[in-house]
Task: inverse folding
C-alpha cells in the first residue's frame, strides 16, 4: 500500500516488487529490482527512506526515518542489501552489500559499513559506526565509536 504523507507520494521503480501487504508512507523511494516483502513498513515521517537497487526488505521489517531536534535522520539502504525479517532500522545508513539478519536493530544516526553483517537479534546503538566488512555477533549490543560490546540482558 502506497500512502502519501505531507504532500509526498512514495516512488517505486517499475522493476521493483512491493508486496500487497507492505506499507510505504511519504517520501519513500524503492530502486530497481528491489523487493519489499509482506508486512514490511517503510515510513518517512519528517525525513526520507531510500532503498537501493536489488535490495531486499523482508517480512515485517520496519524502516522509519526520523527528525530529532531539527536533525534529519533518513533511512538509507544501499544497493544489494538484505534486511531480514522483523528487523528494525530507525534513521540510519546501511551501506551497499550488507546483511542484516532476523530481528536486527539499528538505531538513529548509526552507519553500517559496506559489506558488514549484523547477526540475528543484534543491536547497533545510536550514532555507532560499524566498520566495513565487520561481523556483529548474534544477540549482542554495540555502541559508540570506537566499538564497545555487551551481551543483551537475559532472563534468569
Result:
Amino acid at each position: 500500500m502506497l500512502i502519501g504523507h505531507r504532500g509526498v507520494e512514495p516512488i517505486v521503480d517499475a522493476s521493483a516488487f512491493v508486496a500487497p501487504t507492505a506499507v510505504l508512507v511519504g517520501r519513500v523511494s524503492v530502486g530497481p529490482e528491489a523487493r519489499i516483502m509482506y508486512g514490511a513498513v517503510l515510513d518517512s515521517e519528517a525525513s526520507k527512506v531510500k532503498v537501493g537497487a536489488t535490495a531486499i526488505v523482508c517480512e515485517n521489517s520496519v524502516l522509519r526515518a526520523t527528525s530529532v531536534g531539527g536533525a534529519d535522520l533518513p533511512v538509507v539502504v544501499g544497493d544489494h542489501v538484505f534486511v531480514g525479517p522483523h528487523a528494525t532500522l530507525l534513521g540510519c545508513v546501511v551501506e551497499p552489500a550488507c546483511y542484516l539478519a532476523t530481528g536486527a536493530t539499528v538505531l538513529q544516526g548509526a552507519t553500517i559499513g559496506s559489506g558488514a553483517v549484523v547477526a540475528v537479534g543484534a543491536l547497533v546503538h545510536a550514532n555507532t559506526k560499524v566498520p566495513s566488512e565487520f561481523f556483529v555477533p548474534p544477540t549482542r549490543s554495540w555502541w559508540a565509536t570506537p566499538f564497545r560490546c555487551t551481551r543483551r540482558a537475559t532472563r534468569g
